[in-house]
Specification:
78% helix, mainly alpha
Length: 344
């Protein structure tokens, strides 16, 4: 047993080292990919200059492409990938459901409704942005889920069913608004955003989402042992001294707020929070103190390259990120299910 634990720690340390080295390298290389010819040294030079660690020799146009266009988009892709993967890991453990993902609480549907109301109906008179509308809609949806689940008893299955009800309600509202009030151009733009898009993001989006991600990671790592206890069921967790209702509420609120922040900036990007936790669990084991950081790194690297593929594969046309994650995620998820069936 000691030898097995030592091998597992070495494997996790290796995963950590590879992930920490691969993430900044992936970001730097991804920024160079596109119509404008940019090299990795150009990226480092621009970043160093903007951080006050040197002077850039690039032209203003090339510097702007790196710092104002590609870098915030690539960093937000990393933040979204890490956040969605972490939320999926926590939701699967908390609800004891391998099919749970960050959107199981209806957050994405509420965000979609909020975005559509702002874009199509013009609510807010231009003072409310699409991201703000999406964030408000996501929070309203989650509040409805909390209210319904509390009224129905607050058990795990009631939380999931409340999420399904909220998802269907807000999806219906979104479809109703689009069908009755949107023109063809608005419908196309809304549909592109609903499928997940990182186009047009800025440094404010990166800072906001990164701050929420950092806070969520700290809270979830602080509850790592509690999440391990939840793997044995609510009764076992309660027997180990876990305050089940309070802990579940804290973690549900934390992951829902992170999901709402990510969806408000990038739209609904599916399958990252569903597939990546299974892959990370197979590599790092089920202990959440090891699993959560590995999952975050894997999700970040994964979505950086998915977004790079989405914006270049049909250049100059851009493919929604959610479409690419689904095309990659569905076969991967089928493989996970097949491996689970064989080991069962």
């Amino acid at each position: 047993m000691r030898a097995g634990a030592r091998v597992r720690r070495l494997r996790v340390a290796l995963l950590w080292s590879c992930g920490i080295a691969l993430l900044p390298l992936s970001v730097a290389v991804a920024v160079t990919i596109g119509p404008a010819r940019i090299s990795v040294p150009d990226v480092w030079s621009a970043v160093a200059a903007h951080l006050g660690a040197g002077e850039s020799t690039l032209t203003p146009i090339r510097d702007g492409i790196i710092w104002n266009l590609r870098m915030p988009r690539t960093l937000l892709a990393a933040v979204c990938g890490a956040g969605l993967a972490v939320c999926g890991t926590v939701m699967q453990s908390l609800l004891r459901n391998p099919l749970a993902d960050p959107f199981v609480l209806g957050v994405s549907s509420g965000a979609s409704t909020g975005a559509v109301v702002v874009v199509v109906l013009g609510t807010g008179g231009g003072a409310v942005s699409l991201s703000t509308g999406a964030l408000i809609g996501a929070l309203c949806s989650f509040a409805l889920v909390l209210l319904l689940s509390h009224t129905l008893g607050g058990t795990v299955d009631r939380v999931v069913l409340s999420g399904v009800a909220a998802m269907q309600l807000f999806s219906a509202l979104t479809s109703f608004v689009v069908m009755t009030a949107a023109d063809a151009e608005q419908t196309r733009g809304v549909l592109f955003w609903l499928l997940g898009s990182l186009a047009g993001v800025g440094w404010s989006d990166v800072g906001f989402c990164a701050a929420v991600l950092a806070a969520t990671l700290l809270i979830c790592l602080g509850h790592a042992r509690t999440l391990d206890a939840f793997a044995f069921g609510q009764d076992a967790a309660a027997a180990l001294g876990v305050h089940v209702a309070r802990t579940r509420l804290v973690l549900l609120c934390t992951t829902a707020l992170l999901t709402a922040a990510l969806v408000s900036s990038a739209g609904a990007i599916g399958f990252v929070g569903l597939v990546l936790p299974h892959a990370a669990r197979a590599l790092a084991g089920s202990g959440h103190r090891r699993l959560l950081p590995v999952t975050a790194l894997a999700g970040a690297v994964f979505l950086v390259w998915v977004d790079t593929l989405a914006r270049t594969v049909l250049d100059p046309q851009e493919v929604p990120v959610g479409v690419v994650t689904a095309l990659i995620g569905v076969p991967a998820f089928v493989l996970v299910l097949y491996r689970t069936r064989r080991t069962a």
